[in-house]
């Protein structure tokens, strides 16, 4: 039986691996457990790309957090000696003129307030700079250079390797199925593979599987499938930066967003940040149905004529860990000492990667942090509205 750890982290997605690394860098003896292989193929963090954007409507804290994370993304590119974060910029475009209260308008105002310099775009400028968009259909918005995408699966792989070098004991092939408890305190975990790992504190960072391990979270967390499409453009140059960058297409009204041609995969990824569909993370099949393909084709025909007939190379149903208010869930369990939960990415957690580990480690060590109030253990009534400004909330 392994000797006791200071902290056991359950789950090696972006929440778990950055936490393990940060705690190790603070001198803790840390174990990181995951069924593996790593990065886990079904993990939300495992993908060819994730959007890195500062834009969160009128929510200044999230923008401040991404400003901090962006410095980290640039530093990780140095540390790992390869561009895992591609700062190609983002275009956030609207079908109608931007207006107060709207996601794009409020984000634009917040960018200006915080000293950023986005380029406002009208219909003519959109067509001149980004010719793949159907002329005249999008009439307002902006291009912001400080943003882009990260190759998320490769980021997690690099972080796991780095964590091991720093002395984190990574146990791939271990599926936690219960906690060891002594005197009402959590003192370790048991795994489906029949092993036990004693530890001073356990952090559950199991993404959309977290409420399976901590059932009292099922009232405030749900697993939601989302469609992801990978298309082969007939004219790749039209979908390559600087002519085509990370985009949101009236996203809070449509859910649609996407990426330029991927440098390694040679596909254009388009996905929807919408209501999605409920599923069980361990039991249900993860498939993108024909109805989702029909919605995609309608969007492409309307917005990107050159992509309307492009073949779909593959689809992926990726699963959000949605909290009811769409803010992360990072806190000590109020009734179970020794247990911390760090989950609830709600479809927008990956971009915070470089600053997430430090934030979660502050919670573990009960250190002050300017943002932890946003993610603390909270009462959320059924019917609580989602607050993530970019999210499309209606069917
Ligand atoms: C379709 C889609 C698109 C997204 N796009 C973006 C985007 O563009 N930008 C952005 O910022 N965010 C985006 N997100 C959100 C982001 O991916 C997530 O918030 C983030 O990756 C969650 O990380 P995590 O570590 O909590 O979970 P995961 O990455 O899912 O990791 C959880 C890990 O826990 C492990 N695990 C599960 N059960 C156990 C167990 N019993 N024992 C041990 N280990 C266990 C799993 O194997 C897995 O490796 C998107 C998410 C999805 C689904």
Secondary structure elements and pairings:
Blueprint: E1 5-10, H1 14-25, E2 30-34, E3 50-52, H2 60-80, E4 85-86, E5 90-94, H3 103-113, E6 119-120, H4 123-129, E7 140-144, E8 148-150, H5 152-166, E9 169-172, E10 176-182, E11 185-191, E12 196-204, H6 210-213, E13 221-231, E14 246-249, H7 251-254, E15 256-258, E16 268-272, E17 277-278, H8 290-303, E18 312-323, E19 329-332, E20 339-343, H9 353-364
Helix pairs in contact: 1-5, 1-9, 2-9
The site of flavin-adenine dinucleotide has 38 residues, from helix 1, strand 2, strand 3, strand 13 and strand 18.
Radius of gyration: 21 Å
How large is the share of residues in beta strands?
25-35%
Mean pLDDT: 97
Fold-level CATH name of the domain at 86-147 and 222-323:
D-Amino Acid Oxidase, Chain A, domain 2
Give an overview in words.
The chain has 395 residues and is α+β, with helices and mostly antiparallel strands. It has a domain at 86-147 and 222-323: 2-Layer Sandwich (D-Amino Acid Oxidase, Chain A, domain 2), CATH 3.30.9. The protein has 9 helices and 20 strands. Strands 5, 6, 7, 13, 14, 15, 16, 17 and 18 form a 9-stranded mixed β-sheet that branches. Strands 1, 2, 9, 10, 11, 12, 19 and 20 form an 8-stranded mixed β-sheet that branches. Helix 1 packs parallel to helix 5 (152-166) and helix 1 (14-25) packs across helix 9. The protein starts with a strand and ends in a 31-residue tail after the last helix. The model has no long low-confidence stretch (mean pLDDT 97). The chain binds flavin-adenine dinucleotide. Flavin-adenine dinucleotide (FAD) is lined by residues 10-16, 33-35, 40, 43-45, 50-51, 175-176, 205-209, 213, 226, 228, 271, 318-321, 343, 345, 347-351.
């Amino acid at each position: 039986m392994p000797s006791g750890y200071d902290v056991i982290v359950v789950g090696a997605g972006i929440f778990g691996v950055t936490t393990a690394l940060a705690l190790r860098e603070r001198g803790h003896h840390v174990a990181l457990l995951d069924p593996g292989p790593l990065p886990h193929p079904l993990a939300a963090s495992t993908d060819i790309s994730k959007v890195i954007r500062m834009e969160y409507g009128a929510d200044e804290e999230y923008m401040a957090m991404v400003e901090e994370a962006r410095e980290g993304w640039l530093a990780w590119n140095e540390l790992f000696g390869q561009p895992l974060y591609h700062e190609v910029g983002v275009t956030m475009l609207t079908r109608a003129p931007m207006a107060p209260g709207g996601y794009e308008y409020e984000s634009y105002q917040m960018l200006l307030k915080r000293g950023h310099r986005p380029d406002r775009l009208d219909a003519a400028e959109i067509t001149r700079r980004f010719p793949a968009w159907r002329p005249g259909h999008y009439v307002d918005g902006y291009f912001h250079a400080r943003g882009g995408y990260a190759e998320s699966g490769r980021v997690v792989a690099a972080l796991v390797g780095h964590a091991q070098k720093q002395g984190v004991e990574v146990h791939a092939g271990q599926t936690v199925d219960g906690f060891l408890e002594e005197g009402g305190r959590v003192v370790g975990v048991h795994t489906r593979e029949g092993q036990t790992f004693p530890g001073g504190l356990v952090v559950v960072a199991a993404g959309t599987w977290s409420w399976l391990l901590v059932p009292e979270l099922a009232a405030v967390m749900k697993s939601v499938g989302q469609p992801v499409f990978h298309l082969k453009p007939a004219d790749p140059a039209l979908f390559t930066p600087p002519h085509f960058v990370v985009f949101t297409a009236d996203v809070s009204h449509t859910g649609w967003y996407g990426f330029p041609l991927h440098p390694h995969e040679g596909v254009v990824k388009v996905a929807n940040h919408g209501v999605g569909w409920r599923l069980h993370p361990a039991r249900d099949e993860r498939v993108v149905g024909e109805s989702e393909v029909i919605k995609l084709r309608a969007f492409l025909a309307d917005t990107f004529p050159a992509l309307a007939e492009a073949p779909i190379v593959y689809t992926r149903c990726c699963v959000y860990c949605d909290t009811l208010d769409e803010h992360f869930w990072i806190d000590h369990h109020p009734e179970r000492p020794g247990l911390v939960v760090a989950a609830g990415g709600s479809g927008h957690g990956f971009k915070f990667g470089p600053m997430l580990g430090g934030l979660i480690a502050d919670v573990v060590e009960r250190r002050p942090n300017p943002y932890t109030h946003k993610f603390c253990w909270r009462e959320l009534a059924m019917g609580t509205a989602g607050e993530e400004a970019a999210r499309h909330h209606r069917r």
